[in-house]
Structures
1.
Amino acid sequence: MKKIACIILCLAACHGLMAQKWEKIGDRPQMGWNSWNKFGGNISEDLIKGIADALVETGLRDAGYVYVNLDDCWHGERDADGFIQADPKRFPSGIKALADYVHAKGLKLGIYSDCGTATCAGRPGSLGHEYQDALQYARWEVDYLKEDWCNTADVNARGAYRLMSDALRASGRPIFLSMCEWGSNKPWLWARDIGHSWRIGPDIWCNFDSTRVHPQGFTDIGVMQCIRLCEPLRKYAGPGHWNDPDMLEVGNGMTVNEDRAHFTMWCMMASPLILGNDLRAMSQETKAILMNREMIAVDQDELGVQGLRVATEQGLEFWFKPLTGGDWAMTILNPTKEAVNYDLNWQHFNFIDTEVSRLGTHFYMQAYKIRNLWTHKDEGLTSLANKVWRKLTVPARDVVSYRLTPVTTKRTTTAQLLTARLGKLQKKGIMFGHQDDPFYGLGWSYEGGRSDVRDLVGDYPAVMGFELGGIEVGDDKNLDSVPFQVMRREIIAQHRRGGIVTISWHPRNPHTGGTSWVNAQERDKNTVAAVLPGGKDHEVFQIWLGRLTNFLASLCDEQGQPIPFIFRPWHENSGGWFWWGRGLCSAEEYKALWNMTQDFVTRTLPYNILWSWSPNYGFEPDVLKTYPGHDRVDVIGLDAYQQRGGEQAFIATLNKDLTTLSALAAEKGKLLALTECGYQNVPDPTWWTRVLKPQIEKFPLSYFLVWRNADHHQYFAPAPDTSDAPDFRKMVADKRILMLGDL
Ligand code: BMA
């Protein structure tokens, strides 16, 4: 019994192992050569050896092209036991000898098979022989398998490639799996853990921009058609799992310009670089294209992000690919048959790749050294100013391509400008702020710019607060039913009229499925630990941070520059009601959560955010252990609400905590704010001038923000007919209380 259990356990373990493709191969797009584009089925061991020799002699191997790949027609018959053999006439020494030959030259050998009954040229397919074939390839010391998709009626694509992937894994030899299924079953959706690359479309042919239909009904496509198919699939590609727009046709008959454009675009798309020409007889031009190491470096970049088309103007396509270290590759592709003149202004290309890398170009703030990747000349720096850098001519069916490398720039960031402005305003007075001010109020909602506060005093609050709870799970509306589209509009409107924007976030609980607020059953769950690196919910939380960041990145002005704002995540952590609060995680875990969030968002938005840390009032002295540090915080805030009948306690605690926090802020000249405050429904008609104002005036506060006017049951700001309205008006009449018009 015990034995059987052991065997079952072992089998389960082995199966678990085999359900994984070979890892750590294909971390960069594969580079090499394949016989098909030039030679079709007309191959032999002498040809392959000659190609291997040429790879070494030309320097192509040293430039990275290491795979020598046999395509169709190397096969002979299966032997009596079903093992595949090489064609004895074409490969008399056998595949093992050929592998030894290419290995001795520092190269790797690739082979070809098919998921169906026969290959496309009618040689034996792998269907029903997957484990045997994989074992044979491993015995021969093959390093790469291209598996085609001919003659596969009734074969399930995912199952077939999974089977071969498992078989290769079981063979014990790390073998690259290049899936050649022509995109018929959308492998990008399911093959990430099966193969190392997958074809995304039909076969390429040696033509820049047209298709060719074979009498049998199938179609070959040109370079531009390959690009169009590959372009929308960039989010599926990455290290170890690449989109494959097919092998190269460079050197097979297109013009030099077309070849250059073809090669460049494959590099921009992080595509496999599998040469398809006769390496033994190459023109100088072909060689120069294939051996452009600076361009190859774009393809092989460690980040492994497929480039994207950012704009199309005057028939030109502007492609960008983020590279490691903050570099970008930038290519202007002219797919037309005429040369195009173009005035290049870098400010037209401020964008953030929200789809994959979440990196932005930030040309308005970041200057880059410009390296021309085809002339190999440095061409100066990008300009921070909105002006034409250079008049270019992009030849017909050609490219102009640059590598941009960031240089240190001492320009003041929008975050620094906002800090300076807030510092100045603080000398003038204290700004009044209101959460969700322009969305709804007492008895109205979404009336296009209406505001309870403005209805009462004729001016908007200087500060407006906005809340992102729900953005992380992809909702259209936040937890208070504010549509994010409307919110984006109002945030930009508040910025445009010179007001201050502050943003809070009550994310849901990724660990329990609950809300920000923990219930009795959630009190013993450490959600913060679960979302940190290594935690069970870390990956999901990264997706949440991505959605948050993408929304923040969408807050731009007309020039595409991110607008500055105060971001206030993980607030009120001195209380025990949020999943990041006191008693629910350690101070160290809280800080790790803060840092992870800040680092994530800052990678995308490095210049425009002020970070606000704000505990709830009534905190214990040890809350300071959760302070992320002066290098990470710009605004030190406090959240403080008066409770009914609690006036004395409110005043005392507010004073005590603001004293503590203003001392902390003074250490490094940080801004101080009452980031949330109020007295729900303001039941005291003199509260503003009698209780709140005298207290806040004692401290060097930048602003005080009252929470939202949800409805008649929960509101914090006055409206024209609330009993505290006259008193609020009186408070605002004081020059030291700043409304929008006072800024
Ligand atoms: C709370 C209340 C809730 C609201 C939340 C987030 O203080 O106003 O109704 O959902 O803030 O805005």
2.
Amino acid sequence: MNLNERVAVVTGAAQGIGRACALVLAEAGADVAVADLNMEKMEAVAKEIEAAGRRAMVLSVDVSSAESVKAGFGKVLETWKKIDILVNNAGIVRDNLILRMKDEDWDTVLRVNLDGAYHCIKEVLSGMVRQRYGRIINISSVVARAGNAGQANYIASKAGLIGLTKAVASEVARKNVTVNAVAPGFIATSMTEKLPEEVRQKLLAVIPAGRMGTDMDIAYGVRFLASEEAGYITGQVLDINGGMYMA
Ligand code: NAP
């Protein structure tokens, strides 16, 4: 799975799953732009990409803002002339039961997780169609597949991403642009480290693999979907969850 000459943009790549995706794509040969909010952490990831022998670019982008995405992605197009791979990974949680959920928390999660992917897709898609090559990978979640109490905003956004994936995949399949989703299970990152020990133990008990996933478990799936070899796979959801949910 050689990604030489490919240009990738990974959102939310300052840490966690996004950082792992950026590094794995770079190791496979791609030049990688990392788009996130925290410049300092992104600079560190950029150094790691360069250490792998690839070009790196750091983009201060808030994916929930169309203007911010346009400005950041514009820098990549101006400098590297194309975008071949987009990983829509930026995501947040604001968990609560629906009866207690604040409108603001509903809105914020939808704006980042779902609108964010929409804005990024809009910025890259015409170029991918023109060059007859593109790989878009949207990071969804196991809870969008299985449901879960206390996450209506998050699950609506992540299930929305699966719908978006299928719709856009249908529109651009003839142009050699694939659009797929990856649905991670319970992955050890800063997003899950805040969970109370009791919840963590309950989750571990329902994972047949008997362990939490790692950011690399997800990144390897993303690398596959980003490859030339995955060209006939589109509109799919790749579940990477240690057996926690079997479709
Ligand atoms: P993470 O460590 O919190 O990383 C998410 C990154 O996205 C952070 O660097 C965050 O920046 C950034 N981000 C947040 N809002 C943004 C915005 N508006 N614009 C640009 N960047 C933004 O989380 P993770 O666990 O690696 O999760 C990555 C993705 O996988 C998310 O979409 C998440 O929903 C999904 N996922 C995770 C798990 C899991 O178990 N960890 C399971 C299923 C799905 P700040 O830190 O500055 O906010």
